[in-house]
């Protein structure tokens, strides 16, 4: 059989009438493919979106988890700076709700300073045998060294937690505390590390509002009215949530 070059169709056998032209047959044969493709596309677009946990939920989970910490030991370094004057010390801190021990070694600590804290009082002892008692670690350290170190607030801040007095709270994309303001202090937490199943701060940066404090050294010499404290939390151990 020969293809009619003008029409482009194959003539049917004599006596038979075609029900469809080849062009029409081709259109019908490809129609199911287009229908199937449309159905597939419709199915893809109609799938419900995957739920993503928002940062508010992550922040709530982070607080619930880290609030369960009851005991810990940590080692790090604490640095203080006011104006051009600065100092630093190695920090060791053993914490429980009933009893705390804080040790400072180095220039900031004047050699070695040991502070014990109970619900009733704080007691500071140094290598010379001097003993200072007070209500809080901040009080006895200020009386000894002239520096203001907010250890009461650090109980929460070191775990990446705010207090009821905290304001202007900001979190990162993972729902962890990034910044807050509390009283005279502004706290920034630039990063976290994994400690078991917990996410705990690597570093704390605290700035007091200018003019809120008047800093003196252990010789009672005036140093300035600004204070920046940096605490590097390099190692955690004996962390308990029970």
Describe the structure concisely.
The protein has 242 residues and is α+β, with helices and mostly antiparallel strands. It has 4 helices and 15 strands.
Q: Strand percentage, roughly?
A: 35-45%
The major pleated sheet works out as: 11 strands, antiparallel
Q: Which strand order spans the largest sheet, edge to edge or round the barrel?
A: 6-5-4-3-2-1-15-12-9-8-7
Beta strands, count? 15
In CATH, the topology of the largest domain is named: outer membrane lipoprotein receptor (LolB), chain A
**SS field, number of helical segments:** 4
What's the end-to-end separation, in Å? 91 Å
Count the domains.
2
**CATH class categorisation of the largest domain:** Mainly Beta
The averaged pLDDT comes out at 83
Radius of gyration, whole Å:
35 Å
| N-to-C SSE string, H for helix and E for strand | HHEEEEEEHHEEEEEEEEE
Shape type: globular
Structural class: alpha+beta
Question: What's the CATH architecture name of the largest domain?
Answer: Clam
Q: Helical content, roughly? A: 10-25%
Low-confidence stretches: 1-31, 44-51
CATH H-level superfamily of the largest domain: Lipoprotein localisation LolA/LolB/LppX
Question: Overview of this structure, please?
Answer:
By secondary structure, the chain is of the alpha+beta class. The chain folds into two domains: 1-47; 55-240, outer membrane lipoprotein receptor (LolB), chain A, CATH 2.50.20.10. The chain is built from four helices and 15 strands. It has helices at 22-45, 55-66, 137-145, 151-157, and strands spanning 71-82, 85-96, 100-106, 111-117, 122-126, 131-134, 167-171, 177-182, 185-188, 192-195, 198-201, 203-208, 215-216, 222-224, 228-240. The N and C termini lie far apart (91 Å).
